């Protein structure tokens, strides 16, 4: 089983605590991503998703100039680069997340997504299982 450090995306776009929500949204659009890690130096301190922008900024009528730290998710779920795809897929399924920051200590070194598993034929089963568990839990717990 390959290690995450071998399959993760290493060149991760991030923002800093000095950026505002507008700048994060522009970067999301530019790189076609739905999640941006927030770093302080090399240390990951949070994550902002497109959903965070909608629910914590727009829906609460905050301006796009709001500081990222006001809307970012601070409860980080991360994994080390020596973990394998099965461990990562299980963590992603358990925590209901589709993207998982990869760290060395508290330093961001990459990110792994369900897509990283899916494009590798041998890991596609892990992505499928994780996505199924994420989707089942998400839809079974939410009213329509």
Automatic annotation (TrEMBL):
Chain ranges passing through the membrane: none
Database matches in Pfam families: CBS
SMART domains documented for this protein: CBS
Limits of the CBS domain: 8-65, 72-128
Gene3D superfamilies the record matches: CBS-domain
Swiss-Prot/TrEMBL keywords: CBS domain
Keyword set includes Ubl conjugation: no
Protein name in UniProt: CBS domain-containing protein
Organism from which the protein derives: Rossellomorea oryzaecorticis
Lineage: Bacteria, Bacillati, Bacillota, Bacilli, Bacillales
């Amino acid at each position: 089983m390959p290690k995450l450090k071998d399959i993760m995306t290493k060149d991760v776009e991030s923002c800093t605590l000095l950026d505002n929500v507008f700048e994060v949204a522009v970067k999301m659009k530019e790189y076609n991503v739905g999640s941006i890690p927030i770093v302080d130096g090399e240390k990951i301190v949070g994550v902002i998703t497109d959903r965070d922008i909608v629910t914590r900024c727009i829906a609460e009528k905050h301006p796009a100039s709001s500081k990222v730290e006001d809307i970012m998710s601070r409860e980080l779920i991360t994994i080390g680069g020596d973990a394998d795809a099965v461990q990562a897929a299980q963590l992603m399924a358990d925590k209901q997340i589709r993207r998982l920051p990869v760290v060395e200590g508290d330093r961001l070194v990459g990110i792994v997504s369900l897509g990283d598993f899916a494009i590798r034929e041998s890991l596609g089963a892990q992505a499928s299982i994780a996505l199924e568990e994420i989707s089942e839990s998400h839809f079974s717990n939410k009213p329509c």
